[in-house]
């Protein structure tokens, strides 16, 4: 028998309801890429188990196919409906957890989200990222350290957030200035960063597509609590993707993408301190959101 013939599921392949997954898994036996074989085998086994559990009618199976087709049709350069689907089903957070088994000292991670689609512009420490001034002014500041507490000068902190109305610049290209509320900051000799922005607001994820229909059908709201996104990177350390969530925001206990962790919630305080106001280049008193970031050295905790 040739390799081609032996790879063929074949006539009379022995397909049966009882051993449906086994028959298909057998057809994968010549897959040269072992990881692909492993992943497909698991996919087939889980998918067949799902179908056996649900026992869909033909109409129901077609409805599922129609739904995934609609998700694909909703995707373009600025809209990733499959990411949203993964997010609202909690799969993005699970993949994040599996890939971020860090030391207890390191800052917790959370989802990247679909709006980190353009590069943040490098900005000086203290610069504002709010180019339209839409929202309540606020200083965002913190320190990046290694897990043993050593400050990390020269760390790069990428920051992005929605405006005071709850929209990202890429969602409103005709309304917001390009790269509004985005910035790439390099920490000073003490590992500190600070910038001016606006207090973020809670917002709904895009819900005018099939994922929105899924949320509506399951009586779920589409909202995320107020947050600022960060990616922190430093030489010799595992990079970290996370958010800081604003204490008291609506939806902290029901984030539609399951991204909230208690350890990431911080208050926006009002500070009355002329010296600090001068340091940050703002009037006194001022709003302040502080968030320190702890990175694991590469090689620790398996990463
Ligand atoms: C975000 O926080 O930007 C986001 C995350 C998941 C889905 C939609 C938006
Ligand atoms: Fe966001």
From TrEMBL:
Highest rank taxon of the organism: Bacteria
SUPFAM superfamilies referenced in this protein's UniProt entry, alphabetically: Aromatic compound dioxygenase (SSF49482)
EC number: 1.13.11.1
Segments for region (Disordered): 1-21
Pfam families named among the record's database cross-references: Dioxygenase_C, Dioxygenase_N
Family to which the UniProt record says this protein belongs: Belongs to the intradiol ring-cleavage dioxygenase family.
Protein name: Catechol 1,2-dioxygenase
Classification lineage: Bacteria, Bacillati, Actinomycetota, Actinomycetes, Pseudonocardiales
């Amino acid at each position: 028998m040739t390799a081609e013939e032996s790879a063929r599921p074949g006539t009379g392949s022995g397909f049966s309801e009882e051993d449906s997954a086994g028959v298909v898994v057998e057809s994968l036996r010549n897959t040269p890429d072992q990881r692909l074989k492993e992943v497909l085998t698991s996919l087939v086994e889980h998918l067949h188990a799902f179908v056996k559990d649900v026992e869909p009618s033909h109409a129901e199976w077609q409805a599922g196919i129609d739904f995934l087709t609609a998700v694909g049709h909703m995707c373009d350069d600025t809209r990733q409906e499959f990411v949203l689907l993964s997010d609202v089903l909690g799969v993005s957070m699970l993949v994040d957890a599996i890939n971020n088994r860090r030391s207890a000292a390191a800052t917790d991670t959370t989802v990247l989200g679909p709006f980190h689609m353009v590069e943040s512009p490098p900005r000086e420490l203290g610069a504002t990222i709010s180019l339209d001034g839409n929202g309540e002014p606020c200083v965002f500041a913190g320190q990046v350290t290694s897990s043993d507490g050593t400050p990390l000068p020269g760390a790069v902190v990428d920051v992005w957030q929605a405006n005071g109305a709850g929209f990202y610049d890429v969602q409103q290209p005709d309304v917001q200035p390009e790269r509004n509320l985005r910035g790439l900051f390099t920490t000073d000799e003490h590992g500190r960063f600070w910038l001016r922005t606006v207090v973020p607001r809670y917002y709904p994820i895009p819900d005018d597509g099939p994922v929105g229909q899924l949320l509506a059908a399951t009586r779920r709201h589409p909202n995320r609590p107020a947050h600022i996104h960060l990616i922190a990177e430093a030489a010799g350390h595992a990079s970290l993707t996370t958010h800081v969530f604003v204490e008291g925001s609506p939806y902290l206990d029901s984030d539609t993408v399951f991204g909230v962790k208690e350890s990431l919630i911080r208050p926006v305080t009002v500070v009355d301190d002329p010296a600090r106001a001068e340091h940050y280049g703002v009037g006194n008193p001022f709003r302040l959101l502080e968030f320190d970031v702890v990175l694991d050295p590469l090689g620790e905790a398996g990463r």
